[in-house]
Design goal:
Layout lengths: L11 E15 L4 H7 L5 E15 L3 E5 L6 H8 L7 E5 L5 E4 L11 H11 L4 H15 L14 H14 L4 E5 L7 H15 L5 E5 L3 H7 L2 E6 L2 E6 L1 H12 L1
Parallel strand pairs: 3-7, 3-8, 5-6, 6-7
Antiparallel strand pairs: 1-2, 1-4, 8-9
Helix pairs in contact: 3-4, 4-5, 5-6
Length: 250
């Protein structure tokens, strides 16, 4: 494992120290078998993130790459506050943070309009701030009458459009993006790509992008972090890290 050097920048937006996150995997037993054999279900623990430390300066765009199961998305969800560390710490220095990931965060029984309000409050915005931005979010999402229908009636494309629109309009200090840089139909993809580039080009906004696309990370990122089996294998200049990663994956 390569030693990770601290970023020599006094204005740090994200500081991760010795982060460990594990999952408990309970082997399936039928109730009948469990009673007859008087056995407890066997619990195995999988370490998704193993002692990871790194810093991200304010305004940096950090890409995270790695094969499936390397700990990328677990890391991103930990930064978003969805997963709690078993050990170590995450310090966001008081910055507001949003996670753009399909399938995360909506209450499916309530309407799209109500989900805008709920999502905004979870991001730390006041009800007044959200209601002020709501017309812009609704216009950007372009869901028509479906904005007042339960989210459980949405197609995956509609769900994605609403999720993207909330994150794109309710701007936070730190943006976490999991594999989603454009969503929806061709017209919306063009609009969302333009908006995303506008958001991440803001020098005061810190962005962490998880992606399998080497081209995307090469084009957008200031640094790339390569994760492998829950650890940081390398972090540094995009071209060098991505070339080494590409060779490793052959």
């Amino acid at each position: 494992m390569e030693e990770v050097k601290k970023v020599t920048n006094n204005d740090i937006a994200i500081e991760v120290k010795d982060l460990h996150i594990g999952y408990k995997n309970i082997q399936a037993y039928s109730i009948k078998k469990s009673l007859l054999k008087l056995k407890k279900a066997h619990v195995e623990e999988f370490q998704a993130v193993k002692g990871v430390s790194f810093e991200v300066p304010t305004g940096e765009i950090l890409g995270i790459i790695g094969k499936n199961g390397s700990g990328k998305s677990t890391m991103l969800k930990a930064l978003a506050g969805i997963f709690c560390p078993d050990q170590g710490s995450i310090d966001l220095k008081g910055h507001t943070v949003s996670l753009l990931a399909i399938g995360v965060g909506f209450q499916k029984e309530v309407t799209g309009r109500e989900n805008i309000l709920l999502s905004g409050m979870l991001l730390g915005f006041s009800e007044e701030q959200i209601r002020e931005k709501m017309p812009e979010i609704i216009e950007f999402a372009d869901l028509g009458k479906f904005i007042d229908m339960p989210v459980k009636t949405y197609s995956s494309g509609m769900y994605s459009k609403l999720a993207f629109s909330i994150t794109a309009i309710l701007e936070t200090d730190i943006m976490l993006i999991d594999e989603v840089l454009s969503v929806g139909d061709a017209k919306f993809k063009k609009k969302s790509n333009a908006r995303m580039k506008e958001l991440i080009s803001n020098k005061n906004r810190t962005v962490v992008i998880v992606s399998h696309s080497e081209n995307t990370l090469q084009e957008l990122c200031d640094r790339v972090m390569w994760m492998h089996d829950g650890e940081i294998k390398r972090i540094g200049e995009p071209t060098e890290v991505l070339e080494e990663y590409s060779e490793f994956m052959k």
